[in-house]
Amino acid sequence: MGNFKGHALPGTFFYIMGIWWATKSIMKYAFKKHKRTSYLGSKALLHRIEILEGTVLFGMAVIGMLGEQFNPGGPFLTLYDYKKGHWVQLLGWHHFTMYFFFGLVGVTNILCSTIRSLPASLAKIMFSNAFFVETFIFYNHTHGREMLDVYVHELLVLVTFLTGLVAFTEIFVRTNIAVELLRSSFVLLQGSWFWQIGFVLYPLSGGPAWDSVDHDNIMFLTVCFCWHYVLAIIIIGAIYAFVTWLVKSRFKRFFSSEVGLLKNAEREQESEEEM
Amino acid sequence: MGNFKGHALPGTFFYIMGIWWATKSIMKYAFKKHKRTSYLGSKALLHRIEILEGTVLFGMAVIGMLGEQFNPGGPFLTLYDYKKGHWVQLLGWHHFTMYFFFGLVGVTNILCSTIRSLPASLAKIMFSNAFFVETFIFYNHTHGREMLDVYVHELLVLVTFLTGLVAFTEIFVRTNIAVELLRSSFVLLQGSWFWQIGFVLYPLSGGPAWDSVDHDNIMFLTVCFCWHYVLAIIIIGAIYAFVTWLVKSRFKRFFSSEVGLLKNAEREQESEEEM
Amino acid sequence: MGNFKGHALPGTFFYIMGIWWATKSIMKYAFKKHKRTSYLGSKALLHRIEILEGTVLFGMAVIGMLGEQFNPGGPFLTLYDYKKGHWVQLLGWHHFTMYFFFGLVGVTNILCSTIRSLPASLAKIMFSNAFFVETFIFYNHTHGREMLDVYVHELLVLVTFLTGLVAFTEIFVRTNIAVELLRSSFVLLQGSWFWQIGFVLYPLSGGPAWDSVDHDNIMFLTVCFCWHYVLAIIIIGAIYAFVTWLVKSRFKRFFSSEVGLLKNAEREQESEEEM
Amino acid sequence: MGNFKGHALPGTFFYIMGIWWATKSIMKYAFKKHKRTSYLGSKALLHRIEILEGTVLFGMAVIGMLGEQFNPGGPFLTLYDYKKGHWVQLLGWHHFTMYFFFGLVGVTNILCSTIRSLPASLAKIMFSNAFFVETFIFYNHTHGREMLDVYVHELLVLVTFLTGLVAFTEIFVRTNIAVELLRSSFVLLQGSWFWQIGFVLYPLSGGPAWDSVDHDNIMFLTVCFCWHYVLAIIIIGAIYAFVTWLVKSRFKRFFSSEVGLLKNAEREQESEEEM
C-alpha cells in the first residue's frame, strides 16, 4: 500500500461496495412497500444477489491479496528471512490479512445463501468481524511514523470501528433501513478517505507530501473528514431519490389505472406505520 | 467563536432547543394519556410542528454559519491562502462545519415530515450524527491550548458525546419519555456550559481570563459542571409540572362533569401500565 | 472525607443500600413466583417501600452533605475566599455534590411513587445519573496525588461507572433479577471498597499510610478488589438463600395442605418458563 | 504462570472449553430444527450436560488454583511475609484469583441446573463476570515489564474483554447461534493465544525469548493474532459441518422413509424462518 495506487484500490473497492449496499437497502425498503407485486423483491432473486455480492467481494479481496503479495517490493509469500534474521514486509502482510478477512465475508455470504441451514446472522457477524479486524490492524500499524501519517490512519481506524459497531448492532435489531444506510455511509466515508490519504501522503503531482508536523494540516483534515461524510450523505440521498423514483415509475407501467395508484398510497401508509 | 458572543450564541441556541425538546416530549406524553380527545395531540399537528422545528433549526444553523464566515476575522469562505501558503482561519471552518451538520438535521426533519416514504428514524440518525460530528471536531479542536481551555472543551466533548449516544439508542428503543428527557437535559447542559465557557475564557468584565494553569480552577469547574446539570434537571422538572398542569386544566374545561374526570383517572392508570 | 470516618460513612451507606436492594430484588422475584397470594407482594406495599427507600436515601444524602460542609475543616457553605483569592475546600464541595445527586435519587423515588403520572423509568435514570456523576467527579478528583491514592480511586471510578452502566441498561430491559443482583453486587463492592480505601490511606493503627510508590501494593490491591467482589457475591448468595427460605416457610404456614404445595410447585415451573 | 507450562495449561483449558461450547451451541441449534424427535435435545439431558460442564469447569479451576499455589516458587497460601515485610508472589495470587472466578462459574452452572428456582441468566452473568475479572487482572498485571511482554498480554486483555462483552449481551438477547459461536471463537482465540504467549516468552528450544524491544516482533504478533482468529473460525466451521452431518445422518436411521426426509425439509424451512 505504500504508494498512491495502494490506497486508491481499497478506496475504490469500498466506494463501489458502499454504493451497492446503499442501493440494495433502499431497493429492499422500496419493494417492501409495494410487496408481492414484483419479481425484483422476491426471495429467489435476493439469494442470487447475495451470491453475486459474495463473489464480487471475494474477487476484490483476492485482487487485493495478490496485489499486496506480488507487487514489486511485496513479501512474495515469504514471512521470515532466515538469512538476514528479520521479518519480511510485515506491512504487506498486514494489508494481506485485512483483505483476507473481507474475502471470508464473501465466502460466508455465498455459504449462507446456498446452504439454507446456516443462520443468516453468521454473515452479519463475519461482516462486522472484518471491520473490527481492519480496525485492530490499522490501530497497530503506524508505529514510529510521523504525526500527520498517524492522524489520517487514526481517522481510518475511527470509521472502520464505527462501521463494525453499527454492523454488530444490526445482529440484534430487526431490519432497519436507517441503520443500514448509516453503515453504508460509513463505508463510503472510508472509501473516499482512502483516496484522501493517498493524496495527502503520496501527492499525484509528484511533489513532496504534506508537511507532517504542521498542526494546521491536522486541523484541516479534521474538517475535511467531516466534508467527506457530507459527500457520503449526499450520494446516499441521491441514490435514495433515484431508486425510489425508479421503483415508483416502474410500478406506474403495471398499474396504469387510478385504482392501482390509490392502492399504492394505502400500502405506503401501512408500511410506514409498520416501521 | 473566539470571543464571548461566539460562545453565547450557540449556548442560547442549544438552550432554546433543549427547552423546546423537553416541552415537546412532555406534551406528547401528557396527550398520549388523554388520547383521541384533542387536536393538539393529532398527527397532523405533529407533522406541522416537526416542519416548524426543522425550519427553526435550519435558520439557527444558517445564522451560525454566516456568523462564523463573515464576522471580522472570519475566513470569508476562503480555505487556503495560496500567497502566504497557509490555511485560513481553520477554527472558523470547524465551527462552520458543526453548524452545517445541525442545518442538515433541520433539513432532514423537514424532509421526513413532508415526504411520507422517508423512514422517521432517518431524522434521529442525522440528529445523533450532528452531535457525534460536534464531538469529533471539538475533540480535535484544542491542540496547543492551555490546560483550562482544554478542560472546559473536554467537558463539552463529554456532554455532546453523551447526547449523541442517547440519541443513537433512541433509534432502537420505543418512545420512552425518560430517555427523551435525559437527552433534553444534556442539550440544556451543553447550552449553559457554552455560556460558562464564555465567562471563563472571555470574562465580561474585560478582566483577564481565569488562571489557566491553576488546578483549583479545574476542580471548581468539575463541580460547576454538575451544578449546571442540576439546573437542567430543575428546569425540566418545572417544564414537566407546568405542561402537565396546563394539559390537565385544559381538559377540565372540556369535561366539566364528574364522569369526564373519572374517565381521565381511568386512562391515566391504563397508560401508566402501558409504559 | 480526608480521614477514615469520611470513607467509612459512605461505605456503610452503600453497604446498607446494596444489601437492601439485593433483598428487595430477591423478594420481588420470590413473591412473583407465588403471585396473588400475599400482601407482601402487592403494589400498595411496593409503593410504600419505595417511598421509605427514597426517604432513607434522602436522609443519608443529607447526613453526608451536612457532614462534608460542617465538619471541622469543611467549607461551611463558602465557595470562594475573596480575601485570599482562592477556592475554599473544593474536595469537600466535590463530596457534597455527589451526596446531593444521591439525595436527588431519593426525591425522585418519592415523587415517582406518590405522583402516579410520572414515568417509573425516571427514577431509574436519576439512579444511573447519580452513579455517573460520582464517576465523573471521582475521575477528576485525584489530581496531583500519589500513585496508590490515585489507583484506589480509579478502582472506585471503575465500580461506580459499571454500576451506572448496569443501571442504565435496566431502563431498556424488562425486569431481570440477574441484572438487578449484578447492580446490587457492584453497590456492595463499592461499599466495602470505601472501607478498604479508608484502611489503606488512613490506617486505624495511627501508623503511616501504605507505601504509595511501591508497585507491589497496587498488585495486591488489584486482587484485593476482586476478593471484595467475591465477598459481595457471597453476601448476595446468602441473602438469596435466606429470603427464598423465608418466603417458602412463610407460605407453608398458609397452605399447610399438600394441594397448596403442589400448586406452588406448578407456579414455580410457570414463572421460571416466564423468565 | 511464569514458564511455558503455566501458559500451556490455561491455553489447553480454554481450547477444550471453546470446542465444547461451540459443539453444544451447534448441537442445540441442529436439534431445535428437528425438534421433539430425540432424547439428545431434551431438557433433562441438557440439565445433566450443564451439571457435567460445571463440574469439569470447577475441576479445571481447582487444578489451576492448586498449580498456582503449590508449584515450586508459588506462594503456598501465604499472602504477606511479615518477616521480610513484603507481599509473597502476588502474580501467583493474580492467577489464583482468575482461576477462582472460573471455579465460581462452574459452581453457578451446577447450582442453576439443580436448583430450579434460580434464574438461568445468573449463570450467564457469572460467566461474563469471570472474563471481566480476568480482563481486569491482566490489565493490571504487566507493570514494569518489557514492551513485547506487555503487548502480548494486552492482546489477551482485548480478547477476554470481548468475550466478556459478548457474554454480557447474551443476557439480554434471545438465544442466537451466531452470537454464541462468536463467543466460542473468542474463547478458542484466547486458548491458542496463551500457547503463543508461551512460545514467545519461554521458547521451547530453551533459547532466549524474542527480542522484546524490536517493533517488528509486535508488527508480526498483530497479524499473528488475526491468524489465530482465522484458525478459530476454521475449527468452528469444521465442528459445524461435522455436527450437522452427524445429526442429519443420525436422523436418517430413524426416518428411513421418504416421508421422514420430506418432513425434515419442512421443519428446516420453518425453523429458519423462526430465526
TrEMBL record, chains A, B, C, D:
InterPro entries the UniProt entry points to: DUF716 (IPR006904), TMEM45 (IPR042127)
One Pfam family named in its UniProt record: DUF716
Name assigned to this protein: Transmembrane protein 45A
Main location: membrane
Transmembrane regions listed in the UniProt entry: 12-31, 51-70, 90-110, 122-139, 151-173, 185-205, 217-247
Recorded topology in the membrane: Multi-pass membrane protein
PANTHER family: EPIDIDYMAL MEMBRANE PROTEIN E9-RELATED, TRANSMEMBRANE PROTEIN 45A
Family: Belongs to the TMEM45 family.
Subcellular location: Membrane
UniProt entry keywords in alphabetical sequence: Membrane, Transmembrane, Transmembrane helix
Gene Ontology cellular-component terms listed: membrane
